[in-house]
Structure prediction request, 1178 residues.
Amino acid sequence: MDEKQPQLTGKDQWVVFKRLLSYLKPHKKVIAIALLLLILTVAGDILGPYLIKTYMDDFLTPRNFPTGPLVGLALGYIFIQIGNVIVSYFQLLTFQKLALKIIQQMRIDVFTKVHKLGMRYFDKTPAGSIVSRVTNDTEAIKDMFVSVLVGFVQSGFLVVGVYIAMFILNVKLALITTILLPILAVIILTYRKYSSVVYQDLRERLSQLNAKLAESLQGMTMIQAFRQEDRLQDEFNEINDSHWNAGKRNIKLDSLLLRPAIDLVYALAIIMVLSYFGVTSMNNIVEVGVIYAFVTYIDRFFEPINQVMQRLSIFQQAIVAASRVFKLLDEKDLAPNQQNIETAKIEKGKIEFQNITFSYDGKTDVLKNISFTAEPGQTVALVGHTGSGKSSIINLLMRFYEFEQGDIKIDGHSVKDFKSEEMREKVGLVLQDPFMFYGDIESNIRLHAKEMSDTEVREAAEFVQASNFIEKLPNGYQQKVTERGSTFSSGQRQLVAFARTIATNPKILVLDEATANIDTETEVAIQSSLEKMRRGRTTIAIAHRLSTIQDAELILVLHHGEIVERGTHQELLNHKGLYHKMYLLQNNVVEDIA
Amino acid sequence: MKVFLDLGWFFKERKKQYLIGILMLLVVAFLQLLPPKIIGYVVDEIHQQTLTTAVLVKWLGVLALASIGMYILRYYWRIMIFGSSIFLARKLRENLFRHFTKMSPSFYQKKRVGDLMAHATNDLSAVQQTAGAGVLTLVDSLATGGFVIAAMAITINWKLTLIALLPLPIMAILTSYYGKLLHQRFRFAQEAFSNLNDKSQESISGVKVIKTFGQEKEDTEDFVQLSQEVVEKNIRVAKVDALFDPTISLIVGICFFLSIVFGTRYILAGEMSIGDLFAFTSYLGLLVWPMLAFGWLFNIVERGRASYDRIQNLMDEKIEIDDRTDAVDVKPEGDIHFQLEEFKFPGDDRAALQHVNFTIKRGQTLGIVGKTGSGKTAILKLLMREFEGYTGKIMYGEYAIDMYKKRSLREAIGYVPQDHFLFSTTVAGNIAFANAGATMAAVEEAAKLAYIHEDILQFTNGYNTVVGERGVSLSGGQKQRISIARALMMNPELLILDDSLSAVDAKTEEAILEALKAKRSDETTIITSHRLSAIQHAHQIIVMNEGTIVEKGSHEQLMDLQGIYYEMYQLQQLESLVEQGGES
Prediction:
């Protein structure tokens, strides 16, 4: 809502517009059909008045009513009317479908792209704004396709059709009325020129207004505490006033150049037609039907023009939205590339970190020269306070971020070599905050692995002892999971996440232990499940509670991105260093500290 | 239509604009009748070959004048009516804002900012629509419809009018039926859209899990399916939506056909001329809009009413804590006697505070420590009168705090909150928030006291650097220190630091505390903190636990006691050692 509007020059807009049009390419056939239908409806629109003209001139004026031809004419008129109704229905529908299909494609493109982006992009972009790209912005573009583009094409065809008919009826008058075209063009161009400024200004003021309001609401306690209500009210009023003034300007511009102006040109057209026929009639006989036809054509001609002009602002918005969508589609922050070497397989699960140095922003190193080895089946625990680099180690191992210095090897191959399927299959990660998807318990364990049998799902749940709580649920495995699983405790969510990971039977287990409060009963289940899960698997675990990793083969103590202590629990305790202090702290043992 | 009554006060206020606007609308509706008539006259003259230049010039002159007149009137009624509607929006927005500034913190605890924003944006624009497009549609459709039918019946032929208009009610019925159908289907389409939205939201929030399990492809397939659903539901909408135009043109076509057929009879019978038939068919065209307009009108009015009610409900919210009628208008000064029996937050059964008694002498510093939820912040909120409804007495100087005017009380208190909220203006503007006219020297002095001056000079534009989303991103510690400088600018009688040194390092904390001590020897200071180092030099320390004071005294006294405070102190020493990497 309060995202900054990118400023686009005329050239930028044109580039964006052309790119939007390129989405039409795959639909050439449908477009051809829709255009054909459109031509038919335009032809119907043109033919109707022509028949009435014929009736007036050939039958009504001479007061001659032969039944046969008259019935023919009437039937013709009715046929055209009904035919036109049917054709125009399908024509409208086809264009709508086309727009919907195009937008669907665009949405899929954006969504696919989102999945190709690296974690870096998600770090710097708020989730809400990415969602906005996928849904709201594309919706704005849809409005443009449906109401503006179709309107443009329709008016274009109608203008051409009307002119053809007018030229057939009376070349001279048709030529005279061509003067309407430059007049209308000037009005439309002038309107577009000023409205893009005025309308943009209005949008800008509105977003300022909303930003001010949102900020004031968030900071209201501060405003009140410092007694600045009056000043803030004044500041708000000022923006409110300038928004109002921008609104007035907008109304003035719309009133000057939209409907009232077009209606004025319409009157001019009628005056032209009447004076032409009037003057002609003084010396020659004028067929009344021709006047009728001209007047009706002029009527038909102006309606779509009015509609399109009312919708020019939609066009403006769509271009802005499209430029944001395209910016995401062109985003370069992709997920790390894999070499996809076929022979690289994970069989034993030996993990080696070799001199890894890493930085998120290219400035401060969060990992400095990290080296360690986890032999197959071993557990390596990472401990350290917030910001010490524990999570970064996991992020690199999981290939969420690309690294340049040093290497990480699994069974002798660099993690960059494996096909991503191999990595995903053999390396299982349990996140600190276990994310639950909308659906049910079963779908949350199975995720998208359709080949997994129900038994396998249940076995996985039993293995991690999640089955105890699941079976107590009213609907068991079919129990609904609402948004983010908010109805489950964090311990239960953790157990489901365990089951999810175990179900894929990974060779390597990566654990980010939950820090959230977990009730004792679940805590016991979690601890014994963890123990079971680690058996026979190489495990890299981030431990917040030191008690959970006392049996680890190797404990690495991290501080400011460096490994400051390493060894087993007992060795580290004997060393009486940082680990020892952390241990005391967690057990609330206050000793005399020197 | 009740909403028009509800908005009566506004229409009264803008009586002139609305009356003139509506009058203009009526004149335009009347002038609209002219062009078809004139076409009819001229055609008759042409048909009978009696047209003279004078007559042609006369009619075309009238047509030209009427058109220019209509252009001017159409321009001005828009200014009058639409102008008034945005004036209403401005006014409501201003009132709403004023109301917001008066609401107590408990109001902001109950309501979400997002909802309040929605009232101030969506609801407001719906009301604006009602006062603008709503009024226009009501007046114009009635006027145009009435005038045109009258013109057809009176000036041309009432029998033909009756016949030709027969199909029009069918159009009204059909379009309102479509409208209902559209409404239903549109809801399904909205639902599908919101499912798609939820799905995107979920995928993006859960992107790590999806990447971990390598399910990007499957997830995209899900998305494709949902997007297909959106397409299908929208096609169902389009199927109804596409009915409108053809139906209208079919019915109008039938009306035309009837007019021509029966018109011919009346022409032959000599009851009307061929020019009349011209005028008649043009009038038919003018009737389409009023027929459709009524459907619109109900929509606009319905939305407008619901929105106006929501805004009104918001405006009716009572100001919970207000000045007493006998409130004194002096700035509080002196000792603080806090004698509280019991306090519960509104809507909570548990007592947030129980038996909390302490006294702070003017010029002294009080430290409050305790775990989250132990009642530290509740004490501060009561002192600032953000909440009431406690048993006991809180005295500040001569009077109980509820005897002071709210403004006077706040004038005495400089508050630095936990969640350091800065406004998106310059650093200087943030520091001088309470005192917008302060000199640069005063701003710098406050910044120096809060140990943020040096940092500010490092920013690209120094004190003129803009803070916030589009400006520089500050660290938590910098924000806290700017908040402190902001409170110091007031030179407050009572300075409250609500755990507001948590993000600054130990050295800076000490420097700030030293500076405060030196500068504020005559004024009172209250500091709450998790970290004991922030309060250990206070004259008096209270230790809170579960809403009550468990230990009270100076640092030395509390250490000697070897109770909770002592234990906390030892653990924190250890903790800071761990944070520093174990090197003592």
Summary: DSSP finds 22 helices and ten strands in chain B. The first strand of chain B starts at residue 336 and ends at 343. Residues 183 and 237 of chain B are 9 Å apart (CA to CA).
